[in-house]
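[Automated response] Your request has been received and processed.

Submitted sequence:
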Amino acid sequence: MILVTGGTGMVGSALKSLIPSAHFTSTAECDLRNPSETEHLFAHYRPSEVIHLAARVGGIKANMENLGAFYYDNIMINTNVLEASRKHKVKKVVSLLSTCVYPDNVSYPLTEEQIHAGDPHESNFSYAYAKRMLDVQSRAYRKQYGCNFVTAVPNNLFGENDNFDLEDSHVIPAMIRKIYNAGLNDEDVYLWGDGSPLREFTYSKDLASILMLLLKEYDGEYPINIGCSKEYSIKEAAEMIAEIMRFDGEIIWQTEMPCGQHRKPSNNSKFKSICDIHYTDFEKALRNTCKWFIMNHPNVRGITI
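Generated structure:
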């Protein structure tokens, strides 16, 4: 049986159509920060494989305002999940890292061997170090206990069932919600920064397929980049969303607010050499996501009435 931690989130929701027989955990069922609760979860389900998605995540604002909490929560979640997997002899664990684990000052494109080669960007360094430790713990358990624990590095994820909370969402869902709200109220929309940073975006349904490929085909000791490597500026993404939503107001960039890291392009050649994957066109994936948001608003994660 496959256990998916963080199973009620965006990627977990995308995985449900691929592995409906898996068990998808929720925070209501188990607080993975708690060792005894995590132990009880694994003792009850006794999974043979684990896809570890659970994490405390957020955009630049949430990261900067919750540095200590982001570090503690993620360190505890990862430590407990891997330790329970070891104790219960799970055959394989696939864990997600993030491109923020890479150093701020590094040569591009980002390749896997550079992960620990310098400090991450200051805006989310605590989350980044917690994710780096997930790699360290996975490799340490492999060397001492022979555990087949692998780690993968996606980039900016988006899709249906995302978190649209304006305080802790990522860039795509935050812009979708802000542009939608501005359109409803016939107002201009205000977005952080100047729109110039470049980002790579991967559709959640693509990531679900990738995770299944990794579960079957990748047993490497070191992390592997798995995200779509095409870059778009934040401004380009915002303009696409505005067009899809038929927003005719003005996009006003708040240049006094932080932009975050300018770019962090990744090299996914290692992954593509072992797995055949076709990434969904970015604009098509955005259309799917915006359509889902409009059809399900206001009953989407991150919006309270």
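Summary generated for your ticket: The CA atoms of residues 18 and 108 lie 34 Å apart. Residues 67-87 form the longest helix (21 residues).
If you did not submit this request, please reply to this message.
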